[in-house]
Amino acid sequence: EEALNHPFLRSLHEINEEPVCSTPFSFDFERLSFSEEDIKDLIYEESLRFNPDMMEIPF
To answer: Residue 30's CB: how many other CB atoms inside 10 A?
Structure first.
């Protein structure tokens, strides 16, 4: 709230037009515990979504 009232952002903030979330967010996914290797695999899999050609390159 304080940041939205800062002079830099004040013109972008209209209290009557603020979106409201009708259902609470679930952040349960943030409680998962990953090993370093798991994180590397997830990053690699994500990169393949943007660069599918990389699947064909052997390491």
So the answer is: 6
